[in-house]
UniProtKB/TrEMBL annotation:
This is Damage-control phosphatase ARMT1-like metal-binding domain-containing protein. Residues 4-275 form the Damage-control phosphatase ARMT1-like metal-binding domain. It comes from Desulfovibrio gilichinskyi. Gene3D superfamilies: Uncharacterised protein PF01937, DUF89, domain 2, Uncharacterised protein PF01937, DUF89, domain 3. InterPro entries: ARMT-1-like_metal-bd_sf (IPR036075), ARMT1-like_metal-bd (IPR002791), PH1575-like (IPR014444). Pfam families: ARMT1-like_dom.
Amino acid sequence: MKTQLDCLPCFLNMALNGIRKACPGQEDVHEAVIREWAKGFAEADFNESPPSIAGRLFRMTSKHIGNVDIFKAQKDASNKRVLELLPNITATVHGSTDPLLAAMGVSIIGNYMDCALIEQFDWEAELGHLEKGLDKSLFASFIDKVKVQKSLLILGDNAGEIGLDTILTGLLQADGVKVTYAVRGTNILNDATFEDAKIVGMSDICEVITSGVDTPGTVLDRCSPEFKERLKKSPVVLSKGQGNFESLWGVMDDVYYAFKVKCPVVANITGHPMKTSLFCIEN
């Protein structure tokens, strides 16, 4: 999807939130970063996706603060909270009349763990509505395809969320499906990396690879050649999170998307209101 004017205030909020956490009290650094981002807006190509532009702007930030994982504390807190709740959530999913559908609902709810928006949404409050609003017919056809192919590539999104994704991954693996889970290539926002996959146990239950990207979404021209080859050969791809949706919608065919609609721009594109748990495929 292309970047729109409404994306720019969101970019600035992410930058200011992150830089204040990374450099508390250093107003000169905060101002320098925001001014540089504002300058970047003037030079940006809005034909690029929001994650593509955001990734480049965050790389510019490193010259002011070094290679700092700005959202590490938040990522650690999200992973910790998910691990605390995971036994009860897993039991609820396994006790559902349709565990796979319930597991997908959990994974989508976890997409609320977004550094730019986490204070606006209460993901734990939604855990009592795991299957609310999901397209059950489309999900059933997705599961059928996955079971026939016995293979699924999941494009992961946020820390914390990746812990909830272990439920769906575990169920599919137990059903004979080889799941491969892709994480970011470097620290960007609160997106999941190899470290997060290890912390929540994802690397214990399936193959974890990196897309190689330094962007908050699977921006194809920032992916490693090895990952692009894996992506090309994968018979079924599940894209988790709004950042991956923004990167791939209108760019790649036959991708299943699972995420929370978290902004007016995406709500307008999808035709679904904010806070919708969306499982869809681009026609």
